[in-house]
Prior knowledge:
The complex is a heterotetramer. Chain A is 41% helix and 18% strand. By secondary structure, chain A is an alpha/beta fold. In chain A, helix 7 (205-214) links the parallel strand 8 and strand 9 (221-224). In chain A, helix 1 runs parallel beside helix 9 and helix 6 (179-189) packs parallel to helix 7. Chain B has a single domain (13-20, 35-306, 321-326), classed as ABC transporter involved in vitamin B12 uptake, BtuC (Orthogonal Bundle). Chain B has 16 helices and no strands. Helices cover 37% and strands 21% of the residues of chain D. Chain D has a 6-stranded mixed sheet, with helices on both faces. The interface between B and C is large, with 64 and 59 residues. The complex binds adenosine-5'-triphosphate (2 copies) and magnesium ion (2 copies). One adenosine-5'-triphosphate binds next to strand 2, helix 3 and helix 16 of chain D.
Amino acid sequence: PAMAADKPTVALSNAFLGNAWRRSMITAFEEAATKAEADGLIASFQVSNAPGENSATEQIAQLKALLLDEPDILLVNPASPTALNPTLQQACNMGIVVAVFDSSTDLECVHIVTNSFGDWARLSTQAVIDGIGGKGNVIIARGVQGSPPEIEMYEVQTELLKANPDVKVVGEFFTFCDSAKAQEALLGTIASLPEVDGVIGCGEGLGAVQAFQTAGRDIPVVAFAPSGRALKFWGEGNGAPGSVAVMSDPGQGVAALFTAINIYNGQEVPRTTIFPPVVVSDEERDQWIAAVGDDEIASWQWTQELVDAQLKANIDGMVAEAALPPVPVR
Amino acid sequence: MIKLERRAIPPWTWSFLAAIIVLVLTYIVSGRGGSQTITLAFTIAPYLVLVGLGQMLVMSAGPGNIDVSVAKVFSLGGLIAIAVGDVTGSWVLGLAAAVAAGFAMASISVIAILLVRIPPIVATLATSLIASAISLTLAKGFQGSPDPMLKGFLSWAPFGIPAFAVVVLIFTVLVSLFLKRTIWGAQMLAVGQARRAAEYAGVNASKVMVFVYLTSGVLAALAGALRASFSAPNVELGNDYLLDSIAVVVIGGTLMTGGRAVPAGVWGGALFFILLDGLLNLIGWSYAGQNVLKGFLVLAVLFLASGAPILGRGASSSKPDHTIADDHTEPEIKPLS
Amino acid sequence: MNTAILQQAQLTWPRGLGRRVLPGCLTLVAMVLILIVCGMIQPRIWSQNGLTLIMSPIVALAIASMAQMVMMSIGDIDLGIGFFVGMVTTIVATLLRDTPVLGVLALAGAVLAYALLGALVQLRAVPSLIATLGASFVWLGLGLFVLPVPGGMAPDWLFAYAFWKPPLSIPAPLVTMVAATALTWFVTRRTGLGVRFRSLGSNPVALTRSGSSLVVTRMLAYAMVGVLGVLAGITLTAEIGGGDVNAVPGYTLTTVAAVILGGGMFTGGRAVAWGTLAGAITLGLLTVLLTLLSLSSNLQPAVQGFIVIAVLAGRLVVERMSR
Amino acid sequence: MPRVRARQRARTLSLQNGAIPAVLTHATTLRDLHTADREPLVQVRDAVKTYGPTKALSGVTLDVHSGEVFGVVGHNGAGKSTLMRVLSGLDAIDSGSVQINGVTRPFGNGFPGVRMAYQEGSLALELTVCENIYLSSHSWIPDRRWHGPAARRAARRLDEIFPGHGISPADYVDDLPLADRQMVEISRATIADDLSLLILDEPTESLSGSAVDHLYDYVRRLRAKGHAIILVSHRLREILSVCDRVAVMKDGAVVSTHAAGSVTEQDLFLAMGGEVVSDKEGVGARPTATDTARPVSVKVPMATVEGAATQIVARKGEVIGLAGIAGQGQQRVLDRLWCRNPDVEVSQALAYVPGDRQRSGILPIWDVARNLTITTLPKLGKNGIRDADKEASLVAEWVDRLKISGGANAAITGLSGGNQQKVIVARAFASDADTILLDDPFRGVDVHTKAELYQLIKSEARKGRTIVWYSSENSEMQHCDRAYVLRADRIAGELHGPQITDERIISLSFAEAREARA
Ligand SMILES: Nc1ncnc2c1ncn2[C@@H]1O[C@H](COP(=O)(O)OP(=O)(O)OP(=O)(O)O)[C@@H](O)[C@H]1O
Ligand SMILES: Nc1ncnc2c1ncn2[C@@H]1O[C@H](COP(=O)(O)OP(=O)(O)OP(=O)(O)O)[C@@H](O)[C@H]1O
Ligand SMILES: [Mg+2]
Ligand SMILES: [Mg+2]
């Protein structure tokens, strides 16, 4: 960009505020951005959440209103991987640095900051498989139907299951990674299912466990969401040993911020940069419980240094080995 | 001829018929299940039934009456109940708070409808926007989790009979008694079938409106509170309950045009929907297929169960002489008295 | 006699006309106010680009509201329009692009489906509200069949449209909206068909006695709703550049609100195209306004709700005064 | 009570005095006369039409010739409307034959050249007058650019029939008073290029006196042009004044046809199965001088035509009439009372009997019983719970007292308008209201029903109730103790007992009309 000297103005466009993840993301971002502003990294920032139920059109309207302000950096947590493309294209054409996070897009001019959903699926699925000792019946609780993350994760899950022929899939539902939906879906079918040892999924463990408790079945190994509530629940001894809590990192917004600042300052950054998801295993669980509010999702606390390290790992193509940030403390 | 049959058949029959068919299919598809399938269905049905009963009262209060705020009020009730319950340490206070919240939200609708004369669907839409704003504010930095005792009760099923379902069943009976045996019930249905006429007959229509919308709001919030105690509070907890409550009520045989409320049918509709979801998940239909089938089933049930007198379909205050015009619908009116 | 004199006065201004146009006018005022506020916060709006920017997301909403308006003019309500429009986008972004013939056929089929829905509603005395609700599940399902994942690609001619800049620096979205509204207005208010639609909503008996068939009329009305729904879907595809059945479930209720703001009624018989346009633009601009005000995002929904109530309350006050 | 078996007695009576045979012979000779000169326009032979159990038409036979006005009278449910629906081609008959203009089966839009003005409900309220005209007469209006022509034809026809009407083609019907709507309905029916038979089903029920005269003038002009007109009405005097021949229908058949000149209202009345006393009785029978001792139960401040302040007063046990041309503010008085406007004085318990039964009278889903009790429920039940037995006995009492056909459990929509009206009236009188407001409740109710209801009103008044009664039919006002003639929301005059006559009311209503023009 032209005047790398002066500080950029930042606008964050978020599609909606309806769930804990998005709220944690916004909270994390607002904290970090205020700090960045104080540290003189950015001139000013503006967070805007579109009204409505994660509606692409609302976000488009909101984006266009933001474009009128002509910010230097535009961070987008999109409602849909494709619907915003024409609008984002317009933004690029205006010479704005556009970074999309927690999603993907095939738009060339846009930088993508995201977690590897493959990693997420691998971590959680492997944990469950190990938890049930490599054999037994499992249910697959799938995420948001049709969303690219879910598709990517499903591929990983299926290939891992292929690798473990003793693990038998006895059921498969779409639970939108939402514990209430999972609970209802399970209650509706559980009676018709054989013994279930594990639930492979994307963070609906809470609802799954509750469903099994209601039905008076043995509690399977599950994948929780790293939300304060779920971790507590898990900590109270619900959920068979070997369970895990994995989810994409609400801190991505912050990561995207620092990445975009680097780009704005003319640093070379790959179009897509991968950041790690949040993983909570039995050991660190209680440490995390201390750090996460009930309705929050655990998130890494990215700082410029950490981000630079992660970017370097990306450039060197050794994301897998990159060190995870420290467990945050309250 | 169908007409003659329908004379005999009570309006809620079709919903239960549909539910039973789905149940049988479920058994066929999965060799197993036994009574537990039913038990679990009855474990989740009550929440939808509670919302449905409120929606039913609103809908039977006349053409154009509908409460689209139930979903958001439901979620709000959940959050408030848990939050208050956590702070005060008493789930009773929690539920009370939720009820109060539902009452407050419904009052907004009532004011908008009666004083500002906004059509219900828009008024309640506005209410639901306000409710969701409050939920969002609450959810920020939300603390608290359900009271274990209440939670235990909600999933307690001695001899496979969910206790909570029994409670809601009794409540349903009370509602139908209210409609059949009480003066208010009669007056409500009178307003429902012809508001002007009822007013000239000395019925206070506004009172009826206030009553039904407040009831609907309170029930939605209460159901939300209980649902949240059953699993966990969540801003999106109620989202599915709007369309489902409407569908369930109408499948249950309540007239969209008002004047006829069928509490029993709400149970039928709710069980039908829940069992159907279970079945579709079981046979692992793609989400797309599930929706297409669900849609066609709803239409099919309507097709059989229909017979709403054309009198004022949609909404009819300005359709005089209908009964005379559409004679073929007469016999379908007759059995309702 | 003096009644006659009274009425002489009214001859100039037809009885009942005021009652019917007033609400639309008030909504128009509200719309202008919002535009002005936005303009004060962000002067860049006052340019062809600015207006195009903030108006283009509203086009599809406006056309969908026209569909809802036609529906309400025959005394019905459509709770499926949101998913229908979504489904259309999936068809446009795939079939219509790759195999135009198939695409056109599919869209025609969608319109036909609507007509059949109308027949069901009429023949089986099914409440439209619940019938369309059931249909909405079907639209969603079909949309997912066509495009399980949001994606596809708008046909090139649509992109051409998206970047079209009309002469005299008129914003393109405005042209589209006005054209669609004018069409709806003409059909519903000027043609015999429109008269039949509205009498179906106002008093079906009159329609039967005039010798026309209720079924055919209702089917035609539903077909028109379908056509407008398709148009909305096409413009939406241009806006989102691809197909997504879940793009606009919110339209279902928003369009109803738009019609009411425009002066429509649930009791049927009223067709207020221009008012509905004003209503749709007002609702669409709210997002822009709220974003420009950049007020705490939690409160945004509440503010939306209050603004809707306020506009309608304002109408009530004016009506009271005019009486 | 004597009225209970009115009809049976009437029949025996008429057979004894042999009225009908006499009339019949006369009628036949007269028909021969007609058929001699030319082939009748309408020929109905043994037309039978049944609706489920009810036999609406049991073998109707009649001829109507071009250039005559043919009256049809009969009690509610006698089959008149059904016969008219058959003639206009809306309903098909089960057996028998109908031939009009040589056509024997209606196609598409009914029989060619036959047009019908309905009793109620055939205008679309949300449409403008002009659009309603287009809707019903589109065959004779260009399909494109039709607004102009339609409006012009509407205006021309309205002026032609009802000079001085204040209706503009652009008005929305919803915003027109009932009387104006009826005018539109009638004009609508007459706008057809191929008109050869015009059917008017109870056209004057909601028209004001002058409009009625205008209408009948027009009918005569149509006759002069050689059109045939069939006129259905419960107003025997009107029938006799305009018709050439009158057919009397009873229980779905034409029992006799008369030359209008050669019969009196009495004869028709008897032929319909009426009873002499039931109509005569009570007219002016009430004490004319209302004793001022009785407590005042209703007071409505008003202004006289001259603008002086005055008020409408009703005492306990009085029947007060609100007379005058339709839509001169009578309803507004009732509304002020019903809504208990601060300025009015009115006793505690009120009941209202609406005139527009379809829209503000019946509760369409319920049966007669529930329709009848809804107002009284709070009184019958205790602490919120209904009392089934008390309700049942109350219903039984009133169904029997007013001879409501179909009984307690018939669907209200299955009843004739007349019987529906009985239920609505019973609803009000069954309540414990001490003041009862009647809003022109007897439109389109047959003479017998009316007679019964008049009796009811009187006896209830004697029991100490106050009745405030608006009627568009001046002759009804004779049953009042006092009548206020209203005009433009003001009181044009007050009439006592015997003074209350058609003539006095009309003159008071129109006295001002001249003033206004001057
Ligand atoms: N649509 C209908 N459905 C069922 N029965 C009907 C219908 N129309 C008429 N009937 C039967 O035919 C009989 C005659 O009805 P009709 O309308 O001709 O009476 P009417 O002579 O018009 O009475 P009124 O003088 O009150 O208008 C009624 O008593 C009724 O039993
Ligand atoms: N839907 C119906 N079902 C059964 N009978 C009907 C129906 N509609 C009309 N009728 C019969 O038609 C007859 C006449 O009905 P209509 O509407 O003509 O009222 P009416 O008889 O004309 O009374 P009025 O002259 O006082 O208006 C009634 O006797 C009634 O029994
Ligand atoms: Mg009749
Ligand atoms: Mg009649």
